[in-house]
Structure formats: structure tokens, C-alpha cells
Amino acid sequence: MTVVADRDHATEPARAGLTPVQWHRVGWTAVLAAVAVGIALPWMISGYQLSQVAGAFYLALGVLSMNLVTGLNGQISLGQSAFVGIGAYSVAILVTDHGWSYPAAMVAGAVLSAGAGVVVALPALRLRGLYVALTTFGIGLVFPSLIQKFSDATGGTAGKTIFPLYVPPDFLGLTTTEWGYFVTLVVLLVCLLFVQLLKSSNAGRMIQAIRDADLVAEGFGVPLARIKVATFAASAAIAGLAGGVFAIQRQFVSPGDLGLDTSINFFVGMAIGGSVSVPGAVVGGLFLQFAPQLTRHLGIAPIYTPAIYGALLIVIIRFARGGAAGLVRSLIAPLTRR
Amino acid sequence: MELFSQRLVDGLSSGCIYAALALAIVLVFRATGTLNLAQGEMAMFSCFFIWKLTDLGWPLVLAIVAGVVVAFVAGAAIERVIIRPVEDSHDHLPVIIVTLGLLLALDSLAGGLFTVDIETLGSPFPSGAWHLGTVRVPYSSIGLFAVIAALSGLIWFVFQKTRFGLAMRASVDNPESARLLGIRRSRILMVGWGAAAALGALAAALVAPQTYVYTGMLQGVLLYAFTAATLGGFDSPAGAVLGGLLVGVLQAMVSGYVHFIGNDLSLMTALVVIIVVLMLKPTGLFGRPDSRRL
Amino acid sequence: MSAAALEASIDRAGYGRLTVLRDVEIEVQSGEVVALLGANGAGKTTILRAISGLVRMRGHLAVGGVAVVPKSPERMARLGVGHVPQGRGTFPNLTVRENLVAGGAVRRRRADLNSDIERWSEVFPRLGERMNQHAGQLSGGEQQMLAVARALMGRPRLLLLDEPSLGLAPAVVHELFDKLAELNRDLGTAMLIVEQNANAALRVAHRGVVLEAGSVVMTGSAEELSNAPRVRQAYLGV
User: Fold this and answer.
1) pLDDT digits (tens, 9 = 90+) for C11-32
2) Chains contacting A with at least 3 CB pairs below 8 Å?
3) Please, are residues A246 and A288 in contact by the beta-carbon 8 Å criterion?
């Protein structure tokens, strides 16, 4: 009969680099620099290029809404384009047919989207993640046909032109494009800040706890239903605001831009930027806006752009689930001192 | 009454297509435990392949057979190369996301490699119809019924009477125990996805005479197929077939009799059915209760 | 001398970053019954899962003297290692007969399966009575017997049993372990039995191994262990 003794353990080696707090400061400095560039941009580039960046910001808002509901809260939503559509058509209809002001119409759009978000989130509470994905997939698929059904108000497949145009106050001396850009920028910054603050707050911790281990979280007193519905509604509101700026930028809405592929593109943008990363949403938006041009530049026919998105999505899920933010984090990790 | 009967026949006819695609969805669910959102896109791509063969001069039936076989191989390959690396019996979401990527890729590739135009594909069944009183039962509908009946019989036989079918059912019932007994999950996964792809190809080829061949040809059909699978229970092949027929008939009746819904809201209604069934009886009419948390 | 049924040398094994086992060496000779004892969380189940390839491990493994590389549960089954998992692991929606047929998955010839099924219905009469019932409808004890019979359908040279007594009434546990001893005597099947119920296990085992906090702390013959004060206090409730 043999009795064996205990063993002892090795210690961890020290590392060189910055402390987490210092990296934090570097991050915020970069953010402030980016915001400054964003504000100065109209004086740096042409009107056309500016409208492109504005388009990227609209896409970033859509991606941000996915970051909130799917990345942080774990509810897979493949129907965000529907909420974008509600926001866009609210602006289109209220401004053109009922004389509302643009800001009021945008707020109304966000509220209506949030309401729709609640309507979707309530039944989703009782469904497994798989089935929430299926249901929202269906919503993304069905939404354009709804627009067609109520074509009297929406203009159907032909779309709806919005007038009067959203013109800036005279004293600012900006063009319509520059005004649209600034409106988009402000909405984007507000939403980014909101999600970032939410993420690091108590509520944000609960939101992410639900994603990671909802039963455990519930056991610790996290109000599952309330938070999941609220998060869904907030995400829908952000998507609604995205729709609002989309309508303002184009002064035109049509179901063609609001189909299932838009929802899936937001998903791709989220995967690229990093599903829990707030700045990642901007990266995702920039990618979605400029990647098609880049591929065209490389000589690849535009029809193949979605195939590249699809391939990227598959590769990211397989090899780099954290997206760009995850890559940045893994680059910084060996340079972080405790 | 005649209009009702006619609608019934037409509904059953489209129901066969939904049943075929729903069977594909169920096969993947049974093998992998998750949903393939790209099922429609895979079927559409196969249909374009079949169309291309006919364009090159192949006879239709031969082209369909070739398309189905190639789809089987491609489906198995997709499972092995793209799905398997992210497959996890505890977390089904990464696979769903990968199928989204597949959806994008196949849709775009079909447009690029084949065409963005709308093409036509003939029917393997003779044209003309059998007249039952004033009700017109097209030969193609009878053909569809026969195909679905044969498929159902085949699937039932494989599942219940063959060793492979038993291995597949065991692997779904308790994946870990099956592995411990030496049942190769790899084979089951590949055959599951391959068979599903083959079914999808067949369904697409059979619906092509009505919908024509283009990249969006199966979007609506896919939703009805998901409705059928939801109604029947995601793990029940019998449920998929009955669900498909039921959805077909309901769709014909509702869009015919309820004018507000008509064609535009038909899809919306299907979605509502999915949501209602998932909430009230998630296992569907024929599915088995899942002991894991729903 | 015939090669050992199993030689396992586990340097490290665990889940992700969590190391559960350290430097564990286990040997099961041909035809031997070894009991693996230890408290909850000691890592006993992890050892079996590491051997079968369900849990990643660093180390070496040999079955019947032949090194096993690469390792997977399917490969281990084909090499003649049957694993009866914790909680039975029967196929609840398949019938008893279908469970047994599935157990023969590694066997090549279909014809033999039926005669084996006959034999197991005699050894476990209660299974014979319920051939066409769904396994999920059986009692705990019956499911345990089914899991054992199912594993034996593969005619393994080594049987790994994970907490077979869990959730069973004492009388059923007694009957089950009697059957295991009988099978070992009649078939010569080697067994590695993980058990919290040290009494039941040591009664039928030839040798025992005690595990504490992921490492082996004691080995010896069943008799030695039954008489060791440390074992008696901690595991035999004496």
C-alpha cells in the first residue's frame, strides 16, 4: 500500500507595459481625438465623401443596436432592419404627410420602434435563443411585405420622398449635406455614450450576466424579464434613430434598403467590430460603408461583396470571435502590467 | 364548394413543397440540434445548378437527379468544413450565425456565378390535369403528392429500420452516450446535412415551374417551411410533412377567404403562427418534449 | 503475461483553464476489478472522462498494451473500452431493445447481436420483460442495468463504470454489484469502477485507488484499503 505526498505550484512571471488604468486613459484619449476629427471633418473632405461618412455613421448606429441586444445581452436579433424601418418611415410619414418637425418625428420614430421592440421582446422571453433567432429572422424577412401592404401611407415598393427637406438654420452657414452629417454625428455620439455608460454601470453588469448565465443571474436576484425587455426596447430605439438619420440623409425611404440582408449586414458589422465593443460599432459601420468600394477597387465584381461578408462572418466566428476589438485586446494583453 | 375543393387541392400541392423543405430543416435539427437558416439559399443554388445543366442540354429529369446528388455531396462537405469547426452540442448559436454567413455567400455567389436574371425550369411531370367534377387536379400536383409520399416512406424506413437510422436517433437522443458506444457523430452529421441539402434541391426543382428560378425564389417558401416545421415539431419528420400540408392548405384558404390578408400579409400570418406555436406548444404537434430548458 | 487492460498516466487533465487532475497513474490488469474511490469533487469522474477522451488530458494511455493516439470516445469504444457514464446515459426515446442494438455499434456482424441480446435478457431478467418499452420509462435500477448491458453489447475487454450506485436503493445496489462480480468472473471483463459508495465497490473489487483533490493518495488491495483507518473513517463511515 502506498501513500503519496502533496505537490506545490509554480508562480506567475511579471510583465512589462502599461497598467490597465493607463491603457484606459490611452483609449479615452483616442476616443476624444476621434470625436474632434469627426467634428472637423466637413472642413477636411468633400461633400460627397462626407455623405459617405454619414452613411457609415448610420450603419454604425444599426450595428450599435445589435451590440446592445445581441453582444451585451445575448438575445440574437435578426430583425433590426424592421426597427430601422419603423424609425425611417415614421420620419417620412410624419414630416411629409402631417407636417411634423424633423426632431419630433425622429423622437416619435424612436418611441414607436421601442414599442415594437417591447412587442417582440415579450414573447421572446419564453423562447430558447434558437427560436428567438428564428422569429427575428422571420421579422426581418416579412417587414418589406408589410410596407407593401400599407402602400397608401408608405408609398409601397416605389418608396416615399420626404419633403420639406431638412435645412439647417441660416446662421450656421452649412449645406444640407453638412447639416445631415452633424445631425447624424450628434445622434451617434449620444447613443455611443449611452451604451458605453450603460455597459459599465450596474445595469450593464446585469445585462451581461444574463447573457452569460441567465439562470444563475436570476438566482442572484437579477430581474430577468424586465432587463431583457428593456434592453430589447432600447436597442430597437437606437435602431429607430438609425432609421431616422437614414431618412434625413437620403430624404427618401424605400423597402429595398430595409430587408433581411440589412439585418444580416448589421450582424456582420457587429462581428467585425467586436460584439461587445462600443467603438467597434463605428468600426463595423465604416466597414459596411467602405468595404464594397474597396472590393470594387480590388477588381472584384460588386455582386460578390455579400459573399465576402459571408465568408468573413464564418471566419470570424471560427477564429476571432472578438472581432477587431478582440484582436486589439489580444495585442494589448501581453503589454499590460498588473 | 368547388372553389373550396380547388383551393384545397392547390393548397395541398404547395404544401408538398413546404413539406419537402421542412423535412430538410427537420433533418438538420435532428442531426445537429440547430437550425440552418441558409436552407433556402442552398436549395436555390442547387436549383440554379440544375437549370444550368438543362441550359447545357441535359434532359430535365437527369439534371434534377444530378443536382440532387451534387447537393448531397455539397451539403455533407459544407457540414464538415464550415459547420463542424463551430459545432457544439451545448451552444447552438455559433452554428446559426455561420449559416447566416452561408446565406449571404450563397445568395451572392448564385447571382454572380449564374445570373441575376429570372430563368425558367420545366416540370418533370406531364402537363394537363385530371378533372374531378369541376375541380382541376393537375398531374404535377399528383406527381408532387407521390414524391412526398415516397420521401416520407424512405425517411421513415431509414430512421426506423436501418442501423444507420438507429445510430442517428441515438446520437440525437444522447450525443455523449452515442459517442461512447463508438457511434461516429461525424458520419451522422454529414449525412444529415447532405440529405437535407438533397431534399432542398428537390424541393426547389419542383417549385421552380411556379416561382421561376432567381435568387429570391425560395425566401417566402422558406418561411412557410419553417412554419411547417414549427407546427409539426422540429424533431419530427412526420410532423414536417403534415405541417407542410397543413400550412399549404391554410395559406390557400386564408389568402382566398380573408381578403384583408390576401397575398401581402400571407407571410406575416405565417410568422404569427410560428410565434404563437412556439409560445403555446414549442414542441409542435408531433415533437417530443425536450427535457432541457426551453 | 498478458498486457494490462488499461495503463493510464495522466499528467494534467481538466476543463479549460481549470486543472482537475495532476500526475494520476492508474493500471487495470486483464480481468481485474479496480475501485476508484474518493469524495465528491475529487476528480474521479474526470479520470474516466479523460480516459475516454471526453476531457482533454496530457499524458499517455495504453489499452491492451497498445498506445492510443489520437484519442476519441469513438476510438476507445472500438478498442474495446466500454464506458457506462454517470447518470446512466440511456437513450430515453429508444426502446430497451434499440438501446442494446445501439450498444453493438462497434460490432461488425449483425447476426451475433440478437444472440447477445437474448443472453443479456437472461442475465438481467427485468430488461427481458421490458424489451419494447422506451428506456425513459424504466426505473433507475433498471436503467443502470440497461446501461451496463448496453456497454457489454460491444464485448469490451474493459468496462468503465461511473458511479453506478448513484440514486439507487441499497437493495438494488447490492444486486447490481453482485451482477458486476458475476460478469467479471464469467466473462473476464476488466472493470474500473468509480464509486462514492466505497462499501459496495470494495466488496467486489480486487484492488482500490483513493483520489483526493485530483491526485492519488493511496492504492492497495481491496482488503488492505477496507482495513486502512484513513479509508474506514473517510469513506466507510466507520
Assistant:
1) 888 887 788 888 888 999 999 9
2) B, C
3) no
Q: Is the pLDDT of residue B13 over 60?
A: yes
User: Quick check: pTM over 0.90?
Assistant: no
The Cα–Cα gap between B130 and B141 comes to 10
Q: What is the mean pLDDT of residues B27-48?
A: 92
> Hey, what's the cell of C128?
427481458
Among the partner-chain residues B173, B177, B182, the one whose CB lies closest to the CB of C106 is B182
Q: Give the C-alpha separation, B15 to B10, whole Å.
A: 8
d(CA C18, CA C31): 34
| pLDDT for res B208 | 92
* Chain C closest-CA separation from residue A9 CA (Å): 11
Beta bridge partners of C215: C212
Residue A12: its pLDDT value, please? 54
Burial class of residue B41 in the structure, from the number of CB atoms within 10 Å of its CB (0-12 exposed, 13-18 middle, 19+ buried): buried
ipTM of the complex: 0.90
B263 phi, psi to nearest 5 deg:
-90, -35
pLDDT > 90: percent of chain A: 54
Q: Nearest 5°: CA angle at B16, between B15 and B18?
A: 65
Q: Would you state the cell numbers that stand for residue B62, as one nine-digit string? A: 437527369
Q: B2-125+135-280, what's its fold?
A: ABC transporter involved in vitamin B12 uptake, BtuC (1.10.3470)
Q: List the single residue in A with minimal CA-CA distance to B29.
A: A130
Q: Give chain C's domains with CATH numbers.
A: 6-89+156-235 (3.40.50.300)
CA-based nearest residue to A66, from A305, A331, A306, A323:
A323
